[in-house]
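Thread title: Can someone regenerate the structure for this chain?

I was given the following input by a collaborator and told the matching structure tokens would be attached. They weren't. Posting the sequence so someone can regenerate them.
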Amino acid sequence: MKFIFADSLDYVDPAFDFIADRSPADRQPYWDDAYPHEILGYAPYDGVLVSRGIIGDHRVKGKYTASQARRFHLVGARKFLRLDKPEFAHLNIFGDCGAFTYVQEERPPYTPAEMAEFYDECGFTHGCSVDHIIFDFDASEFGLAGGSENAKERFEITLENADGFRRETIAIGADFTPMGVVQGWSPGSMAEAARRLVAMGYDYLALGGMVPLKSPEIKLCLQAIRDVIPSATRLHILGFAKADDIDSFHGYDIASFDTTSPLIRAFKDAKQNYYLPGNGPGLRYFTSIRVPQAIENPKLQRGVKKGMFRAEELVRLEALALNSLRAFDRGEADLEETLHNVLVYSAPLVEEKPYEDCKDSIVLTRLAERYRVTLTEQPWKQCSCRICQDAAIDVIIFRGSNRNKRRGIHNLAIYHEHIERLDLKRAVYPTDDLPHRLCAAEQ
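Best answer:
Regenerated them for you:
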């Protein structure tokens, strides 16, 4: 099973100064920055996915600048992502249309011919057909029953585009592997979509619309699909938001999935944002320690404007927290003193009150418990990755993009190792007659 990282220009500045809290004055983002596989010295994934919607154009506002988008088209995906070195030649480069970026449109802004040409010219190894995302979901419906009118329209648009997309790849002699995207509003409708895609000639299917679904619902869809397609048909899960639950997905023979979860959780999860290998089948999680910039944090600045805090005092408390953490890392400060100084600065942030006025609050007490575990375990000293070795305790400090994304890159490395340890191949393969089964709607 391949772990594909969905990239969104997730690079960091290798020359970032943690003490001064700044990058070099002459830094040029992208050109001077490093992707995860560069700063780690190896790829913490089996491939990278780039969405057409992330790149953007005159129809869809992406994340790339105009010059970055031009360069991507000019030099191709592998060179743009700096995966053109021999040690990265084995990595796959997946592409999809970025259906979330045009979810409000009646029809996708891209044609099958346009996307086939885009994938081929930019050197993708795998390309997804043009889908239109369906958010409706009802696990109780059978076959093609249920579903809103809009969901059914999007279902047919997705299949129509998939048929045209495969024909285009054949017509141009494309070098990439075409993937048919499955969209549906129930396990049965997704199974029917998968059956039709296989009949079109697809042997690699990508399941869309999985982001809002819970793990049990995703498993129902996978089982329904597996029941009607050949065992040799590969399955990919697009935007697998339940990536941390992947070890429970035994029996569905997932060939690949893409996610940004390990990286994003580094700065969007309040409690479990630093990973380490677990003693059992799962991972261990730690809470990073928030020490935001006093003069830049909106919440703290609101408190200053309301007269609740003095800016100078917040800056002093910020420096004290940072200095205490670094001294603790060097063995020059004890845990209790360090934890106290961190909590004194945390109080204005989480309770909007001075520490003495809320030190016994439930919120601050629970935060202290999580921080105590982090400082006691010192997880950054248990990891040998280049991020943790170079950044030391700064990797566990929740503060600014260069620290937070470094922690996310560390998470990618731990997660990739976790995936490689798992054995999620299908325990019992379906019999040869399963491809010929019809969905309930056609029986």
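The longest strand covers residues 177-182.
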